[in-house]
Design brief:
The chain has 8 helices and 8 strands; from the N terminus they run αβαβαβαβαβαβββαα. By secondary structure, the chain is of the alpha/beta class.
Length: 213
Amino acid sequence: MDVESNRKVLQIAEAHPGYVYPALGYHPWEIKEEEVEANLSFIRNHVEERVALGEIGLDYKIKVKKELQWGVFEELLDMALKSDRPVIVHCRLSHRRAFEMLKERKIKRAVFHWYSGPVDLLDKILSMGYFISATPALAYSPPHREAIQRAPIERILLETDTPVSYQGRESRPKDVRVSLEEVARLKGLEPSLVAMQTAANASEFFQIRFLED
């Protein structure tokens, strides 16, 4: 989200090597003009310690000026391109603009977090080789369900969006099982198959090899 939480992410990853893979982000909710350079500098200075940038992106429901959001997002996308890292994209009510900015900068690897945008845009996202992620919101969000039903399993990642609350209940990392079971149900697939495929997707996307039990 910001410098403070990014520091904590790196500390957790350092304490659990091979199990926790850090992504450093600058969430649009946390953008304050006087703090932009400090946040960008921290991410820039720790580029080798992360597997991705995220969450980053746009949010048109908040009061942060769009121009400021665009500028920060552009800087982060340039970092991702230069360091060859994937991006985890937040784009509430701003799906098309976020997609165009990724396309303009020729970003190769991106996942649209909790995608619930237009179906025609989803087709373009998938055609670019990008991913979308499934969250526990599948249990109640028709637009999110429609997106996950439409996307091939090879282009889906699982997440929980911890610690965001879903219908009054705070999500935890273990709730990835909820996302898994909802994807399996929607697609009529065995949960074990969904688990294997989405793990392979994550390995490809983040370019990491997971430790086996």
